[in-house]
Every structure is written in structure tokens, then in C-alpha cells.
Design brief:
Blueprint (H helix, E strand, L loop, with lengths): L8 H17 L2 H10 L5 H10 L18 H14 L5 H13 L6 H11 L5 E3 L15 E7 L2 E12 L6 E6 L2 E6 L5 E6 L8 E15 L1 H40 L1 E2 L2 E2 L4 H30 L8 H28 L11 H13 L4 H11 L8
Parallel strand pairs: 1-4
Antiparallel strand pairs: 2-3, 3-7, 4-5, 5-7, 6-7, 8-9
Helix pairs in contact: 1-4, 4-7, 4-8, 5-6, 5-7, 7-8, 7-9, 7-10, 8-9, 9-10, 9-11
Length: 382
Amino acid sequence: MTPDLLHSEAEEDLRAAVRSLLTDHAAPSSVLAAAESGHPCDPGLWQSLATGIGAAGLLVPDKLGGQGGSAREAAVVLEELGRSVAPVPYLTSAVLAVTALLGCDTAAAEVAAPLTALAEGRRTGALAVPLPTAPGAHRPVTVRAEATGRGRALLTGQVTAVAGAAGADVLLVPTDHGLHAVDTGAEGVEVTPLTSLDLTRPVARLTLAGAPATLLAEPARARTAVDTALLTGAGLLASEQLGIADWCLTETVRYTGERRQFARPVGSFQALKHRLAALWLDIASARAAARNAADALATGAPDAPDAPDTEIAVAVAQAYCSEVAVRAAHECVQLHGGIGMTWEHPAHLYLKRAKTDEIALGTPGRHRETLARLVDLPGPPG
């Protein structure tokens, strides 16, 4: 089936609503001030996005309290969030945690309750895997579960570099006995913030010492649920990277059109025009790759989100969009000259988010390896 890379009227309306909200409440100066304060996540902004617009439940069916949308709508939201580097837990809660829960038995009360709470924006969640974990990658078990009966267990272990854990209400923890839900306020749960390059997406170390937990899925189903969540997250992360690149290009074109040297805008110099034109072409290709990944995730068979076509679309999008976002951020910093090197200008926020996204949910090299395997195109002999 031919992918639809154009946005529908409903998707454009969603984009307009999210952009308007972010323009009013997540301007670069506001994001920078929040990052300096050490408390980047804006609860008010998240509530407006999650409940006011309903973005938290886009991927959740209506009957479970969500909006019944698809990855295409979620991609629109992430593109706008990338354009503003807004410090909200959309990727970690509304995408990764929600998709992992959807992979469990949603008819069971222990799954439906947290899923509905996340969809309605009453709680936030995080999938307790290291942020660099790629879809389909081998995940060593670092948390052990001791069953106590009736679907309850005590968890012991540690997971590092968990994005979104610091502000989450519930953690979805893969263990040797399946996937478990843990309340962050429970006894035996310690969430330690770590120093992160990206100040707008903090990571933390999760330490569990006999923490009470609820079993959500047995090992086989848990592995599938987590893999599906990682694949969905990687595919939609490409849209965030597209938003980063688009903002960097737009801001750089604006600045070079205003900054003057030798009585001319520096943007009129041929060398700079060529660099910006090349970047525009890269971003146009990235837009096609990101939208193709979102469409593949949205239109793939519900019971087979890891179908080869979907995996190929995600691998292509991540392998390409990751590097385009970093290149666009580099150009933004360099072509702003001296001001681009200062803390006061927001360019460094986009560079840091782009560099962090480059390793999040798999590096470009890892996704190229996946793509080579899927299309049976081995690399050159070593």
C-alpha cells in the first residue's frame, strides 16, 4: 500500500492547536529559564497539552479513556515539541509507557487502570529501560522479581539512564518474570537524577530494593510489548528530530537575513546560501522519512506492529533523521556566529536535544544494521 505522506485536515488542526500552546507557554526563552532552574518539566504546560488538547491519550482507544488516534497524530505532536524542545514527558509517557501498556492485556484491571490514568493525563509514566536501548536489542535483565502471590511481587535491581523517571508517577519495569508496574512513591523505590547533556529531557537511575509491584504481563508477552513500545518510540522520535531540524533551519535563515556585513545580509553570500540550500534538501528528505515511519506505524496490522515493512520504515527514518537533526543544529550554531556560542541563545538547547536523540532508542549505525538485515543487504566484509 502506498504511504500517505500528506497531513489530513484533522492533523493540521492538531498541529495548529499544539503550536499555539507552545508558542504561548514554551518559547525558547522560557525553556532556557526552566533549564537553568534545574526543574525543566513544566507541569502546567504538560496538563494543558495532555488534558486540554488531549495529546496524552492519542494512542489509546476511546473505550479506555483515550482519543483513539494513531501514530500519525502522535507524530504531529512530537514534531511540534521538537520545534520548541518543550520539556514535557510526551515521548516517555504518552508514547513509550502507553504503547507498552497497550501491548499487555488491556481487559485486565491492573493494565486498564494505569493506562486510563495516563491517557487522561492524571498520571505520567515511564518505561524503565535505558534511553539508548534500540528496538529488538538484547536487554540484559537487571531487575529481579520475587512473587508474593495474586500478581504481586517485590522487585530488586537497578536500571540506569531512564528518561522521564524523575517526574513519573508509575514505572513499567521489565524483570526476569515479565513486565511490572511500580509506583514511584512506594517503599523501596529510589529515583536518582543523573547529569544529562539534554537539560530538557532528564534521565535518572532507578534503584529498587524490595519495591512492591503489580504484574502486567508474563515474560513472552512482556518482551513483545516492550519491543513494540521501543519500535513505536523510535519511529515517532524521527518526527521530533524533524521538528528540531526545521526550527534550526528557519531560525538560521531568519538570522542570516537580518545580520549584515559589508552592507549586505550575510545570508546573501553564496557560500552560506549553498549551505542552507543543502540543509533544506536534507530536511525535505527527513520529512518524507519521518512521515513514512509514522504512516507505517499507523497503518500496520494492530497485531503485528513489528512487521518487516514497519521495521524498515522506522530503521530508515531513524538512520537518516538522527543525523539530519544534528547537522541542522551544528549549522544553526555556526551560522549564528558569536551569538550562537552563548548560553543566552537557545541554539545550544537544540544541539543538545539533537545529540541526545541521536543515541536515544538506537544509534543511526544500529538502525542501519537493522535495515541491512531486513532487506538482506550485508555490509562489506571486515
